[in-house]
Amino acid sequence: MRDSNPRTVYLKDYTVPEYLIHNVDLSFTLDEKNTRVVSRLTMCRNPASRSSDTSLTLTGENLKLVRVVLNEDSELGDKDYLQTPDSLIIHEVPQQRSFVLTIENTIDPKANTALEGLYLSNGMLCTQCEAEGFRKITYFLDRPDVMATFTTTIVGDKDRFPVLLSNGNRVGGGDLPDNRHWVSWKDPFKKPCYLFALVAGRLECVEDRFTTMSGRDIALQIFVEKHDLDKCDHAMQSLKHAMAWDEQVYGREYDLDLYMIVAVGHFNMGAMENKGLNIFNTKFVLARPDTATDADYENIEGVIGHEYFHNWTGNRITCRDWFQLSLKEGFTVFRDQEFTGDRTSRAVKRIEDVNMLRTRQFAEDAGPLAHPIRPDAYIEINNFYTLTVYEKGAEVVRMLHTLLGAAGFRKGSDLYFERHDGQAVTCDDFVSAMETANGVDLSQFRRWYAQAGTPVVGVAQHFDAAQKTLSLTLSQHCPPTPGQTAKEPLHIPVVTGLINRDGSPALCRLGENEAAAEQVVLELTQAKQAFVFSGLEEEPVVSLLRGFSAPVKPALNRPPEELAFLLSHDPDTFNRWDAGQQLAVQVMSGLIADYRNGAKLAVNPLLIDAYRKVLEQSWDDLSYFSLLMTLPSELYLTEQMRVVDVEAIHHAREAVARALAEQLREPLETLYLRYHRDESGRFDAGAIGRRRIKNTCLSYLAQLDADWARHWSLQQFNTAKNMTDQLAALTVIVNHPHPARQQCLDGFYRQWRHEALVIDKWFAAQAMSPMPGTYERVLGLLGHPAFDIRNPNRVRSLIGAFSQSNPLHFHAADGQGYRFLADRIIELNGLNPQVASRMVGALTSWRRYDENRQNRMKAELERIVSTEVISKDVYELAAKSLA
Ligand code: TRP
Ligand code: ZN
């Protein structure tokens, strides 16, 4: 597998396909070890191609070729074609008229541990074709701008494969000799092969219906293993809500008569939007109050929505090439974020999304793997399903929404759907539709697609009491990123409001003739630009970047009193929360320095007061209240430090949490007891909020190392009727020296050993614990009978959780965490390159640490790169991290 010189693919080299495929007739004869595939392609030369080559190159990997037939009758011989490890070249095909190419090959799903192409999961056969998995099923033009209609016939044993599914509508089926049966599926919509899917196995199905806005009746089916039938309700409700939402907000209706979702236990990512036949990681389908947390419920709704929304943003309109990935992913993430915001709490959803962006995506943007949301080169496209393409991509779409307004944005999306339905297009086509529909010029805005890195926005304010004006000077600069040193100014929407000293909102009046507004969108387009607000009797406090209106870092050093003021008074729910976060960051940064100097850690009373005020207020949205009460994470603090000191960060944060618990003990205990009463897991905003604030209080009180929290956490663990409460209690117990620690872990395991997704939580809780001995425990868990390195969910819950969510132990100064991770990556590299490569991320930020850690991390990356057999996936990330 060692590609000594892995090939880089460049956006600038894009050319249209030389051939087109109009129609595909597939037939599968299923067998775990030897599945036969016959593919009949109706093709022709692409009139738009300028190439004069008369041969045809199809891509294919790990295929056993049986025969090739041209135009039904002439079977091709050895001299008519050439097979390479990743292609089939047919020397001469008709140029003037369309032709039919029939290819027969076999594949071995059982040997497929990479979970790409056709593979086995718990006895079920299923496919994963995005981005380039179809080539592991049969020879094809495996690129998204080749769109065809597909008919699929599946033949299989009735006992092993009672259910046979593929894309589209079922058009036939029947019995065959030898206890076999067949089913045919036809998908009338043209699609690229990455949206192809096939599922076969012993599955049971939950069924429901949805009537579309034009009155069409759609059958909805969710397929799972039998013992999971009682965990499909929430996914089904989520699907119906998503279908209704897309009609209301975007005017988009579902197009086939049937919508199927299949849940599989072995899956590389979250879910896949295959046309009419979504395939999901069980994690994003299965939920019952006693097995799934409130966060799981929310994620399920979000991912079900995400895949459903892809039907228009991804499937009906797809990507021209993989550099355009953010065209479908950025837009679809934006759509699912808004869906969740409408379904739950807008304020909370926005904070959660920004938290993730500012910790994980900002880190990516500041490291050696930084790339624009539309990358211009890759070695392995699977490595570009990143936080940048997805989450920053969604922020870029959100900025268009902010600049154009909801109505303007809708005009733009309507035009986009009208212009490009049935096509494979570019990010530029999307922006052009927004531009044309609104009569605006977005040429500078387009730089967001090409420029990597997180811009820093500087702020200076000057109040002129005589003129009653406030002049706000904004500036921007973007730090250099690998391969991109010169940066140009971006078009940045900065939503801004003003607040009077008494806490009341001040009206914003920009220029002489503009009407006064509660807030304004400042459009920062130059390197430095001044905005003048008039008609102000006193100098207001500026509330900047409301709702986090752009993915930038404001360089603003506010005095703590001003942050406390904003925490009390900003009407913008995001900025209000963020003021509290910045205040806590300031205090903790001071403590981090104290810790490093060996000084005593004394917490600024201003912070305690600010939190006391929050506690004393009454809140309708208890989830939002909990977020206000939550300290910035260790990962967010990591982002704020020039040289990361994991121990100092951990101890500073603990010191603040302990001080808050000590000094606010009474109100925290009262609040805990107020909401402690059992609610057996209703999933509505009220119940979720009550659980969330109660568990936030418990985790503070646990810092006191006192009997009170020991008692209540054990009590909650033993009596919880829902997973949110049970897991919250277990986490508190596992994160502190609780006498019942081992007993609870054992009990939890025994209780849930038949529920794979709950056992994932059991592994993760142990892997994330700050307690001493965590590394040894993680190492031991690798040998636990329930650990299976071939299951990506298990890998993520043990190895992923330890390396990405336990900075204190992963970054232990002796380097054992790094060695542990590198060993696992090398082992996984041979089994599942995609999952292996996702684990490399924890080592890429080595430059941010002290010299000792730098050397140790680097040495492990070097060890990975010099592995004899290395996948393109792992090679690309490890090599770029070292560069
Ligand atoms: N397109 C999928 C989504 O965003 C994600 C995806 C890409 C994926 N490649 C994958 C899922 C490989 C599973 C395996 O929803
Ligand atoms: Zn997606």
TrEMBL record:
Q: Which Gene3D superfamilies match?
A: 2.60.40.1840, 3.30.2010.30, Neutral Protease Domain 2 (1.10.390.10), Peptidase M1, alanyl aminopeptidase, C-terminal domain (1.25.50.10), tricorn interacting facor f3 domain (2.60.40.1730)
SUPFAM superfamilies, sorted: Leukotriene A4 hydrolase N-terminal domain, Metalloproteases ('zincins'), catalytic domain
Q: Which GO terms describe its molecular function?
A: alanyl aminopeptidase activity; metallopeptidase activity; zinc ion binding
Q: Which InterPro entries match?
A: Aminopeptidase_N-like_N, Aminopeptidase_N-like_N_sf, PepN_Ig-like_sf, Peptidase_M1, Peptidase_M1_dom, Peptidase_M1_pepN, Peptidase_M1_pepN_C, Peptidase_M1_pepN_C_sf
Superkingdom of the source species: Bacteria
- Tell me which residues make up the Aminopeptidase N-like N-terminal domain: 25-195
| Domain Peptidase M1 alanyl aminopeptidase Ig-like fold residues, every copy | 453-553
Keyword Zinc present in the record's keywords: the answer is yes
- Cofactor(s) this protein requires: Zn(2+)
Could you tell me the EC number(s) of this protein? 3.4.11.2
Q: Which reaction equation describes what this protein catalyses? A: Release of an N-terminal amino acid, Xaa-|-Yaa- from a peptide, amide or arylamide. Xaa is preferably Ala, but may be most amino acids including Pro (slow action). When a terminal hydrophobic residue is followed by a prolyl residue, the two may be released as an intact Xaa-Pro dipeptide
Among the record's GO biological process terms, what is one? Answer: proteolysis
Keyword Cytoplasm tagged: no
**Keywords (A to Z) from UniProt:** Aminopeptidase, Hydrolase, Metal-binding, Metalloprotease, Protease, Zinc
Q: For the Peptidase M1 alanyl aminopeptidase C-terminal domain, which residue ranges apply?
A: 561-883
Give every Peptidase M1 membrane alanine aminopeptidase domain span: 235-448
Similarity comment: family membership: Belongs to the peptidase M1 family.
- Biological function: Aminopeptidase N is involved in the degradation of intracellular peptides generated by protein breakdown during normal growth as well as in response to nutrient starvation.
Q: What is this protein called?
A: Aminopeptidase N
Lineage of origin? Bacteria, Pseudomonadati, Pseudomonadota, Gammaproteobacteria, Methylococcales
